[in-house]
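Hey, I'm writing a tutorial for new members on how sequence and structure tokens pair up, and I'd like a real worked example in the thread rather than a made-up one. If someone can provide the structure for the chain below, I'll link this post from the tutorial.
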Amino acid sequence: MRYGGMAPVDVMRATTSVPAEVMGYGDDLGTVRPGMLADLVVFGGDPLDDISAARDVRWVVANGRVYAAAELLERPGAE
């Protein structure tokens, strides 16, 4: 998407809030705010400054548990 000319903020929206809205889940998913359901990814940099920072995953928060990215990559079938 970025190579197609999209701004980083639009790339992030296209992978989060826009699909949630299109699928009819926008009231529950797609943004980080009180009352929303969310799994989160923590990057090593700010993808709004440089979208390639989204490749530098450090942590994942899923179903209320925090995982180090390295831990997830060590699991069988991770790659």
